[in-house]
Amino acid sequence: MDCIKNSHPQPLNNPARNATDVLAVTVHNLGYWPENSVVLVSCSARQVGPIVRVGTDDVLEVDVADAEEALTRYLELLPAQIAPGEPIDRIFCIVFGHAGAQRAAQLTGCGDATPTMAEVGSEAEQAQRARVWIEVVRRAVDRTGLALADLYFVSQTCRWTAIEETCAYLFDGFVEDVLKSPVYLELLMNGSVVAGGEEEGRTLHAFNPQATADEEHTQAWGEEARMWFEHYDQTLATDGAAYAEDYLGQKFAETTLWSTALEVIEESLLRLPESETRELSHAQYADAVRQAIPAPVAGFMAATLTSAGSSQFVMFAAAASLEDAQHLMANVHRESGLPRTEGAGLMLPLSTAESGQLADCVRRLHGEEISFDEISPDKAEAASELFGTLLTGRTTRAPEWNRVSLLDYTAAVLASMCHGLPAQRLMLMRAWIGWLKGSSSDASAQLEACEELLRVEPSPLQLILESAALPRWVGEPAQHGRHRSWKLEGR
Fold first, then answer.
1. pLDDT at position 435, please?
2. Which of 128, 149, 349, 379 is 20 to 30 A off residue 450, Cα-Cα?
3. Terminal Cα distance for the chain, rounded
4. Partners of 81 in the beta sheet?
5. pTM, entire model
6. What is the pLDDT of residue 220?
7. Burial 213-235 (b: 16+ CB within 10 A, else e)
8. DSSP state, residue 279
């Protein structure tokens, strides 16, 4: 289940006027053509708001009571307004049925895409079975006080519009008509790409950490970073007790490195002329990470994600601030009751030969005494409360999206040069970020790469996804995507 902020909020040269236009806006925002899904498109009088997609095993097999309850819950998550003076007052609902080869043929233009009368007749039977959604959606919308602008059913190749008075669907054309919509074509010309299905969309829109405009530097950096990763990974395996002697001090130093790395990466991206739109290429992001983080530091950062706590400290520092992370660790220190072995010596990367802000940070940490004693109990407890609510979406305060987006790209680049549990912790971090952004399907896909890790370190994210919960800030327009966050081109 996903809640996607409308990524095309600017007034279109061709405003949406009919069913094909509404479908065009929907699939461009999702990035793919869904199947077995119910999609809710929220609107004001002039704008499209968040779009919610709810996946089902089979959209033609539905428990009416459960479906109505679920749709009501998701509608209640929507914000009251898109912007000041733009209240959300209506909903378009699109029920996507089975896809199949015929839809793929219509979307790609390969082969004979025209369905036979027998095929249209078969899809008409599916539309007959999908009539139950007309009443389910109507009741859910009525319970939230919104207006149902229109309801569509999309089968393999045909489109159908609901007639509420007769609780039936009327044939309204073919799927391929959407590709000819002026809205669809305008968004396509603006760089938005729509995949034929969810899996294809995930591959098409996934960040490629190997992308580069400098093959020589990328290869050299990758080889050196992997060497240092192996070095630190082996060091931790043979001397783990000494590494954890001052656990909180060590983790704060590591979190400081991650936080500083994100600052350096953002500063370098802001110097790019294209950064005004913040829609940059895969190579620009990946190269920015490799340029900002010296290979020895990259190997160290990946290897020292030694536990779920390590990853969560890093995520919290990105989502809130490094200061909040320090206050959180002070609270952990107080509540654990365990004495810290201050002055025990920290394990830090050897990058003193490097120049730059991150290398300076390493040198500063080598000579810095890390203490949590000066942090007041009130600040420590407040940080602990924020940690518990922010990473589980139980607050209307959203994360610092710029830093969270850059953390996602950084984790992807580091995961590409390491292996084992540290690599899977990086993938789990990316899964959590996907959910924070409102996409349970992205989070679930990332979790599939973490099976070995999750067997030894179960994650709260698994329970969150099983409950089909969404972060509370999706209902706050000022929080859900209020920033100009860093985005990949075409998304």
1. 93
2. 349
3. 19
4. 87
5. 0.88
6. 97
7. eeeeebeebbebbbebbebbbeb
8. E
Tokens of 61: 């097999």
Highest mean pLDDT among 187-201, 212-226, 326-340: 212-226
**In whole angstroms, what separates CA 287 from the centre of its chain?**
21
List, for residues 32-50, the tens digit of each pLDDT value: 999 999 999 999 888 888 8
Does the pLDDT value for residue 77 go beyond 90? no
Provide, for the chain, the percentages of residues in helix, strand and coil under a 3-state DSSP scheme, each rounded to the nearest 5.
55, 10, 35
Coil, strand or helix at 137: helix
Give CA separation, 481 vs 145, 344, 438, 484, in Å. Answer: 25, 43, 10, 8
**Are the C-beta atoms of 480 and 438 separated by less than 8 Å?**
yes
Q: What is the mean pLDDT of the chain?
A: 87
**Residue for token digits 């089968």?**
155
Structure tokens at 64: 């009416």
Strand partners, 53: 2, 39
Cα separation, 318 vs 22, in Å, equals 36
Exposure string for 150-178, b = 16+ CB within 10 A, e = fewer: bbbbbbbbbbbbbeeeeeebeebebbbbb
Q: At what angle do helices 308-319 and 377-390 cross, to 10 degrees?
A: 100
pLDDT, mean of residues 278-298: 89
- Over range 110-131, report the average pLDDT: 84
Residues 6 or more apart from 421 whose CB is under 8 A from it?
452, 453, 456
Rg (alpha carbons) of the chain, rounded to whole number: 25
Can you tell me the distance from the alpha carbon of 158 to that of 127, in angstroms, rounded to the nearest whole number?
A: 10
What is residue 217's predicted lDDT score, i.e. its pLDDT? 97
